[in-house]
Amino acid sequence: MLEKEQILLIVYFIIIILFFASFGIIFFVAFQRRKNKLLVEKLRAEQRFEDEIFKSRIEIQEQALKNVSWELHDNIGQLLSTAVMQINILGTTIDEKTSDALEDVRSLVGDSLQEIRNLSKTLNNEVIHNIGLEKSIQVELDRFEKLRFLKTKLSVTGEEFHIDAKDEIILYRIIQEFFSNTIKYAEASSLEVELEYAPNNLDIRISEDGVGFDMNSVQANSGLLNMKSRAALVKAGYEYKSAPGKGVSLLLSYPVKG
Fold it and tell me: What is the pLDDT of residues 49-73, one digit of tens each?
């Protein structure tokens, strides 16, 4: 009888040990899940905070660009328009030889006025909203052609779909940043842009035939970081490639948002 009681006692101890072990394991697993959940929530909160900060910075930048656009269009544009009028008036009071020289000046001022107006369009997000992404890109490319910076080409395939207005601005600013880098650093002779509207996304491919660079040895500058951050903000795929002597290319894949 005593042996049976000992066996039962051992069984009870084993059951108690197993109970506490199971409780400990369950508590540990629950604790780890709770800890992981809190970490994920913290990371998401930090990401949301960073996104809000970046959005605010973009809004400030857009407002600054809009103000510059107004200044160019309303003030400098008005001054150049007045200059053209004065030149036209002056042209009626001078001899033919001087008038020919004055015509060159008038043409130069007129071209400057048109350039100011075109530049104003590319800076004002309200204009971009009105004319759309494709026409905004074309205006910028036409400006490069007119200034003889490089040869350009824009091709569009697929059926165009609606893009959220804020996302459209962000996509355009990424493209504009690429253009700016091309003009400043690439020493390129041609610049090509392709918009491909697919069922689930818009693929934007941009390439230039400039000097390129080694991506492993060149530290990302603020322009590259801005492009990547903006792409992440609209959840667009981002692929930037370059190699010495092979130019630079950019692929943005913007998903359709239902």
Answer: 566 656 656 665 666 666 666 666 6
pLDDT, residue 158, reads: 93
Distance CA 83, CA 78 (A): 9
- Specify the pTM: 0.66
- The model's pLDDT over 148-207, given as tens digits with 9 standing for 90+, comes to 889 999 999 999 888 888 889 889 999 998 998 998 888 999 999 999 999 899 999 999
Q: In this structure, are residues 66 and 124 in contact, taking their beta carbons and an 8 Å threshold?
A: yes
132 in Cβ contact with 121 (< 8 Å):
no
How many Å apart are CA 124 and CA 10, to the nearest integer? 83
Q: How far apart are CA 214 and CA 51, in angstroms?
A: 30
User: In angstroms, rounded to a whole number, what is the distance separating the alpha carbons of residues 166 and 175?
Assistant: 15
